[in-house]
Amino acid sequence: MACCMKRILSKRLRLKVGRLFGAAPTSCRGFHAELVRHDCCGLPIVHHSKYVCELPANHRFPMGKFPRVLHFLLQDQVITDRQVWRPEIASKDLLSCVHSEDYLSKLIAGKIDEQEQRRTGFPWSEGIVRRCRYETAGTVLAAEIALQRGLACSTAGGTHHAFPSYGSGYCLLNDLAVAAKYLMDSSPTKRKVLIVDLDVHQGDGTAFIFKDESSVFTFSVHCGKNFPLRKQQSDLDVSVEDGLEDKEYLSKVEAHLPWLLESFHPDLVLYDAGVDPHWEDELGRLRLTDQGLYQRDLYVMKTVVSKGIPVASVIGGGYSRDIDRLAVRHSIVHRAATQVWRECGM
Ligand SMILES: [Zn+2]
């Protein structure tokens, strides 16, 4: 696969990409980071030990996957711990760029009623709120780093079912929307953000949040028969049938990403690399393989980076009772990003 990539990316292109993105920052000032361990030669990975929290026994959400993603990246020597950036907790102020004051107050104080808790799939706890705040800050930090260095990947994120005033489908805060809105507003020229959401479920919360915002383009490829039952309208929805396999799936992505980049001209891409289109996933209905996910992630990040556009990735959805198998599957995006980083001379 490495040889194939080298043929695709000419030396000229690699030099061009290397020049497009600035040098590594020398301090974490101005970033949503509490700890930065610089390694100017490696792909930045955003992770926090508080991405995880306790859940009731036998809860269906595979909470244990988050630390295991980092574990396998280190164990397999895909990254070193010097590449890891640690986000600081997201302030209420940061979250309020997307979420309503009333919702944030209720969420933080534990005043979410039972019906609302059922809709999220999680019983309320201080731990779950804390983990979502770190996760959201991680996505913001990955996007900030990507703007400086071209590419960065969090080991969590992709909570695209959260709406401004309520949570849904295992999502309490919409990290993609907060990152997009914050980075759009923090630039005097109003940055344009393209959200590429390849989780198997539609990014309904994100689509709703940005339905009237011309500076953010939402692109979702999802299984039409899957959750949520009631879809929102993204700027571009590609609804696919059950059982889709690698080749057909990839052709859907390839049919749209290049023209979207050409016509929308984003300043930043946020990439939700959900692994729930995998054939073994308990909630997906598609039939992608590990290799198919790798090709997808490589294609998306390589296509964006080679146009000189920064990209930050989040892991998105993935559901299995076998936590380690799932964590390795989620680490595919970091492995593909490492290849892009190396071969683009970043
Ligand atoms: Zn999903």
UniProtKB/TrEMBL annotation:
Q: Which domain of life is it from?
A: Eukaryota
Question: Which residues belong to the signal peptide in this entry?
Answer: none
Q: Give the UniProt keywords, A-Z.
A: Hydrolase
Q: Which Gene3D superfamilies match?
A: Histone deacetylase domain
Q: What processes in GO biological process is this protein linked to? A: epigenetic regulation of gene expression
GO terms for molecular function, please?
histone deacetylase activity; hydrolase activity
The UniProt record lists the keyword Zinc-finger:
no
Q: Which Pfam families match?
A: Hist_deacetyl
What sequence ranges are listed for the domain Histone deacetylase?
A: 59-327
Q: Which PANTHER family match?
A: HISTONE DEACETYLASE 12, HISTONE DEACETYLASE HDAC1-RELATED
Protein name, UniProt field: Uncharacterized protein hdac12
This chain's source organism reads Parambassis ranga (Indian glassy fish)
